[in-house]
Amino acid sequence: MTQLQDAAASDHPSPLDMEQAKDKFFHEQVIDLTKWALSETDALHNKILKAGLSSQLAMAYGNIGQWGEAFDTVNTIFEITPHLPEGYLCESQLYLMQGYIPRAVDSINKGLEQIPNDDATLQHQAMLLSSYQHQQQEQQFDKKQYYDSIIENTTWTLDADSPSMTPDITMRLYKLRAVTYGKIYQFTKAFKDADTLSDLFSDIPDVFLCYGQLYWIQGFKRRALEKIDEGLIQFPDDPRLKREAAVLLQQLRRVDIFATAPLEITDRIIAYLDPIKHVLSPSPSLLSVSKTWRSRILNCVSLWSTVNTFDFYVDDEESVLRAIDQFCYVLPLLPVGMFGI
Fold first, then answer.
1. How much is the pTM?
2. Which CATH architecture has domain 16-143?
3. Would you say which domain of life the source belongs to (predicted)?
4. pLDDT of residue 2
5. Contacts of 20 (CB under 8 A, 6+ apart)
6. Range(s) for CATH 1.25.40.10 in the chain?
7. How many angstroms separate the CA atoms of 22 and 7, rounded?
C-alpha cells in the first residue's frame, strides 16, 4: 500500500465535511492573525487601519456564526471611528449575512444620517439593499470585498515586519494570503506566495497543505493528491495530510456520470452553457474538471459556434480581458472547421 492508501484506510471524512472544516479553519486563522495584527497597531494610533482590521475580524466571526463577538467588534469600530462609514457598512454586512435585510437597510440609513458628507460607499450599499428589497433579488454577502480586505491587511502586516513577528506568524500569514488569492482565482499570486512559503519553510507539512489546497480550489484534484503524497513521504504521521489524502482519494474514485453518458446527451447539456460565463470566466473553468469534460466541451459545435465579440461586454474591464485572453488560448484547441473556416 502507498502512503495515500494507508491514509485513506485510516480515515474517511466526507468531502462535504472536509470542505466545511477547511472553511471554518480559514476563518479561524483570519480571526487569530487579525487579533495579532490589531495588537501590533495599538502603538501606531492609526484609527482607519484599526477600523479596517476590526471590520475584517467582525466578518470572520460572522462567517463561523459567532454573532455576539461579531457585533461586539462592530461596537469597537464605532468607538474608534464614529464619524466614518466603516462601522455602519460592517454592521449592515453582518445583518445581510444573517438574512435580515430591513436591519441592514436601517444600519446604512443611520450611517447616511450620522455622517455629514454623503459617503459614496454608503450610497452604493443603500442602492444594493434597495434592489434586494424591491426586485426580490437574492441577498448576498460580499465575499470578494472580505477577501480583498484579508489580502490588503495581510500584505500590510508582512511588509511592516514587526519585531514581534515569529516564524510561525510569518508562515501563517503567507499561507493565509496564498489561499485567499486562490479563493478569488488569482492563482499566479497564490502560487507565488506558496513558493515563498516553500523557500522559507521547507521542513513543515503546511507547505504541502498550501499547494494541495490551491490545486483543490482549481479543481486539479490529482495534482493536489500528488502534492499531499509528497508531504506524506516526509511527514507520514501528520494527521492533516492523512485527512486530505483520504478525501482526495475518495473523490477520485467516484464515477463521472458526465464522462460515461452518450455524446448526443452531453452535447445537449453543454449547449445550454454560456461559453463566456461558464467556460471562459476567471473562476475555475469547466475545461479543468477532467480530460473527458475538456474534450467534450471543446468539440461541442453548438456551444462555440455562437460566440461573438459582443458576448464579451461586461462592466468589469479586468473580467473582459481575462475572458478574451482565455478565449485566445482556447481557440487553437477547437476542431478545425468548427467556424466554417
1. 0.68
2. Alpha Horseshoe (1.25)
3. Eukaryota
4. 44
5. none
6. 16-143
7. 18
